[in-house]
Amino acid sequence: MVNEQSEQLDAVFHALADPTRRAMLRNLAREPHSVSDLAAPFAMSLVAASKHIRVLERAGLVRRQITGRTHICHLDARPMHGGLEWMRHYEQYWHRSLDDLETLLRAEDAAAQKPAGSDRK
Amino acid sequence: MVNEQSEQLDAVFHALADPTRRAMLRNLAREPHSVSDLAAPFAMSLVAASKHIRVLERAGLVRRQITGRTHICHLDARPMHGGLEWMRHYEQYWHRSLDDLETLLRAEDAAAQKPAGSDRK
DNA sequence: ATGTAACTTAACCATATGGTTAATGAACAA
DNA sequence: TTGTTCATTAACCATATGGTTAAGTTACAT
């Protein structure tokens, strides 16, 4: 029972950390797709694509509606909300980061001027 | 080279898909920390924490300033921008997801009522 | 000069991830 | 019935991940 919220974030961010899965979500944003249709654009076996879909499902980003032998996958974007909010919190630090980085680079510059122990192995 | 942008997203989302690393970023948002300071709150070895920091660095979310034997880590939130924009694109689908889900659940309801699946439009 | 503190690298381990092929099952078509 | 299609499970493989301890490197303190 570590943290329900945190595990949700783990699952969502992990699901998004793969180009195949992001592309699948892009396709699902247009309209629902069967597993085969979802898999078709990718140079991998149906089994591999199916595993990706399961990862998306585990993150709650995809819902599956079974009709006969075909599984129709629907996008459920709601779990992204938490991730989006998490990241949005850091928007304020982008500019601060720029300032920090400037300071940092100036410091490195200064260090580079010094002849002392700035040598690399 | 697959796609520069895509690999950046891979790295950022992967870096964020771990509670330890997210906590580290939270701490770095307050102020820069040395590696030891960053590692201190966690029940793991310094080596393990150091690996997490390297993942954050690989994603560009942390910059390191070496001063003597201590490494000061700075937050650089900028790489989050791409991820945030990616997710923001799906905000519009949250409500659509709700509608779809309703339809989906109603369909499942209907299917549950029917004795043998034979209803296609 | 010696010791200690801050980190990294190296080696190792268990489990997870991303892929494969082969076999299976269930639904549809003939 | 027979065959084909949609998708899964099973078994396997290579590599990545997240952790460990031990050993090394470099800077600082005494």
Automatic annotation (TrEMBL), chains A, B:
Designated name of the protein: ArsR/SmtB family transcription factor
Coiled-coil stretches: none
Pfam families: HTH_20
CDD domains in the cross-refs: HTH_ARSR (cd00090)
Lineage: superkingdom: Bacteria
PANTHER family recorded: SLL0088 PROTEIN (PTHR38600:SF2), TRANSCRIPTIONAL REGULATORY PROTEIN (PTHR38600)
InterPro entries according to UniProt: ArsR-like_HTH (IPR011991), HTH_ArsR_DNA-bd_dom (IPR001845), WH-like_DNA-bd_sf (IPR036388), WH_DNA-bd_sf (IPR036390)
Lineage per the UniProt record: Bacteria, Pseudomonadati, Pseudomonadota, Gammaproteobacteria, Cellvibrionales
Segments forming domain HTH arsR-type: 1-95
